Amino acid sequence: MKRGTAYELIQTLYPDDVKCIVCGREIRPNRYGLCNTCQLEINGNFCMRCGRHKVGIGDFCDECSEMPLYFDEARSAVNYVGHAKELVHRLKYGSARYLAKTLSRYMLDVLLLEDWDANCITFVPMHKKRRRKRGYNQAELLARELSEKTNLPCLDLLEKTRETVNQAKLDRAARMENLNGVFAVTANPPRSVILIDDVMTTGSTVNECCKTLKKAGAATVYVLTFASVPESPLLDNNGQNIADFRR
Ligand SMILES: [Zn+2]
Ligand SMILES: [Zn+2]
């Protein structure tokens, strides 16, 4: 196929296709926009329930057994360490909206692998004040990219009804309490939904969203995040702990 002006326009709009999105080195375009030294760590050995990288040999991690889960399956593309952390931070706080395009490619690969039977895609909402301040919701950007790539409709199903204190500073019990009843549906969800977020930390946020969607009638809810905090310790090939800190 002849590459015309549309292709050139995309190259101009999304510099990630010509430069490494982490180090900025000029590289040959690859589909993730990364050079060989800035590879992200794919989440390979994952918990069959919550999708986070697990340490043991069983099917499930220890993390998600501590709370009731309202999603049917959760998966994430990469571990929330190193460059993945940096990229999420830039997408979230650095106005790097264009990153949604490349980060969603990792997520698409997971979707194709899982082949979930879903009617739509939706996303974890932000409180409207916070969204106005930031100008966008990064989870929504990822969801819209995935919708375009899969032809599943992206539906705006949830709203956040009140502002909450930063989850990062709270332990698990406090997170669940902080989020209790904070989401509401804005429309009736279809039978089967894929919920999108950028990062899964303890899973409390996506879990609360799934609880809300199920109460409103969704029979199945899947969760897909770009990254997830691995079950610690996350060891590299030399036995070094590479999960430098947990959020
Ligand atoms: Zn690089
Ligand atoms: Zn788990």
Question: If you had to describe this structure to a student in words, what would you say it looks like?
Answer:
With 247 residues, this protein is an alpha/beta fold. The protein folds into 2 domains: 39 residues, no CATH class; 188 residues, 3-Layer(aba) Sandwich (Rossmann fold). It contains 7 helices and 6 strands, in the order αβααβααβαββαβ. A 4-stranded parallel β-sheet has the order 1-6-5-2, with helices on both faces. The protein has a two-stranded antiparallel ribbon with strand order 3-4. The longest helix has 16 residues. The termini are far apart. The C terminus is likely disordered. Bound molecules: zinc ion (2 copies). One zinc ion (ZN) binds next to loops.
